[in-house]
Write a structure and sequence with these properties.
This protein has about 210 residues and is mainly beta. Helix content is about 0%, strand content about 35%. Strands 2, 4, 5, 7, 8, 9, 14 and 15 form an 8-stranded mixed beta sheet that branches. A 6-stranded mixed beta sheet has the order 3-6-1-16-10-13, with no helix packed on it.
Length: about 210
């Protein structure tokens, strides 16, 4: 059973959206091959792994890979991903990350999260329709989660706190961020996962709420 992906703009203004693909074997590796369910939305490739598009206020679009391929990547709003705060974005940026339809990987896990490691320029939520997504080794059932302001994401299921690239520790964050173990989680709650094979399918939605 396949998993679908959608991106939603819950604000009252159009939002510039960026998608960046990973280089995982078996997953789509060219943004020009992505299909949008809303034919009025057009992607502009920045290179073969990166592209941008605008989602009108209050609208949503599905994004799909060619048949038989997974999708591994992230979505950001207003700016491409970056390694830390800049003069223009003093609170950094928070990608919504995902790998879905990766059943070709041995013991593969579909995984979603919001990374606040380099900061947070937007309030973003991720929600799922199936009831088999969990965190912390299956201890926590998850249907939706949402990040907070840039240094206020400790303890939120599905969200990596500032500087904490390993969820429960700050091991190797970008130099622009530096190590800040004071923001670490006590439990490994940052990834929301389920088996890539024999799952309940459904949709993963990434929603823009507002800028911080």
């Amino acid at each position: 059973m396949s998993t679908t992906l959608s991106v939603t703009n819950r604000s009252n203004k159009d939002v510039l959206t960026f998608i960046t693909l990973g280089t995982t074997n078996g997953c789509v590796q060219n943004v020009s091959e992505l299909k949008f369910s809303d034919s009025s939305i057009h992607l502009t490739p920045l290179d073969h792994l990166k592209g941008k598009f605008t989602i009108p206020a209050g609208k949503s679009t599905g994004i799909s890979a060619p048949s038989g391929q997974g999708i591994n990547g992230n979505v950001t709003f207003g700016t491409p991903p970056m390694n830390g705060p800049t003069p223009d974005l003093p609170h950094g940026v928070n990608p919504a990350e995902f790998i879905i339809n990766n059943g070709f990987q041995p013991n593969g896990q579909e995984t979603i999260d919001i990374s606040g490691v380099t900061g947070a320029n937007a309030i973003v939520s991720m929600s799922v329709t199936a009831d088999d997504w969990t965190s912390n080794g299956g201890k926590v059932k998850v249907k939706s989660f949402e990040n907070n302001e840039w240094k206020q994401n400790t303890g939120i299921v599905g969200v990596f706190p500032y500087s904490c690239d390993n969820c429960t520790s700050s091991d190797n964050p970008p130099p622009e961020v530096g190590k800040h173990p004071e923001f670490r989680n006590q439990e490994p709650i940052c990834n929301v996962q389920r088996p890539a094979n024999h799952n309940k399918g459904g949709n993963v939605d990434i929603a823009f709420i507002r800028y911080t």
